[in-house]
Amino acid sequence: MRDHKGLNEIASIIRREIVTMIHGAKSGYPGGSLSAVEILTALYFDEMNIDPTNPKMEDRDRFVLSKGHAAPVLYATLAERGFFDKKELAGFRKFGAMLQGHPDMNKVPGVDMSTGSLGQGFSAACGMAMGSKLDNAPWNVYALLGDGEIQEGIVWEATMSAAHYKLDNLIVFLDYNGLQIDGNIESVMNVNPIEGKFKSFGWNVITIDGHDYDQIFAALDIAKDTVGKPTIIIAKTIKGKGVSFMENQASWHGSALNDAELKQALLDLGGACRE
Fold this sequence. Notes:
single chain; alpha/beta; Rossmann fold; globular; Transketolase; THDP-binding; thiamine pyrophosphate; Transketolase_N
């Protein structure tokens, strides 16, 4: 039986770290970082075969944050999991610090792929999964896409390739919060029907509540049992999840919190975080 209470407590800590980091940097992307917390918590604290003391372990599972602007959720998760000292979070987006605005695999322990240009991380994840197949290696590749990100053509080239090469060791989450920097995804560039598109490319498609651990883990179990097809888990989420004034607000896609907003956000999320 998985410890959902423990995972929820970790998720609350990660959310508090996210808003604190972005406030300190005076820039960043809170909305889509907060919406993905349960997904990363499930992966890093239960699902993936990883070792924080040996980040380059050969047979580790890999994770690619394709929507690299959501780096705060990855950094806070890695720090909480023990890949590096939490003190590094205070340097987020600051000159000379380890944690820059987008993940850098050459500087940050636990980051398997540098990402930022939308769609390219997903393509890299497909290549990594193919490499695992060619080596007959046991590890899986997990990736996280944004719903606005799938407006990129490179995503669909990778989608076609992953199905063609039967990459059943590739499990992708789509953070489907419905909003991007310019507003509702259906208004900016409609990507629906998402399920139908991926099915037509030959993928195994599962749709879940992306904040429900039972549904996340059930989907992961199905994905791992699927043979001959990559899996995409379409996770319906809330942008800005957990912060009252951010939830379902496109304006918080890439806005920093001021002092009063940080105080309210931390109250919403259960209290103070770092000093």
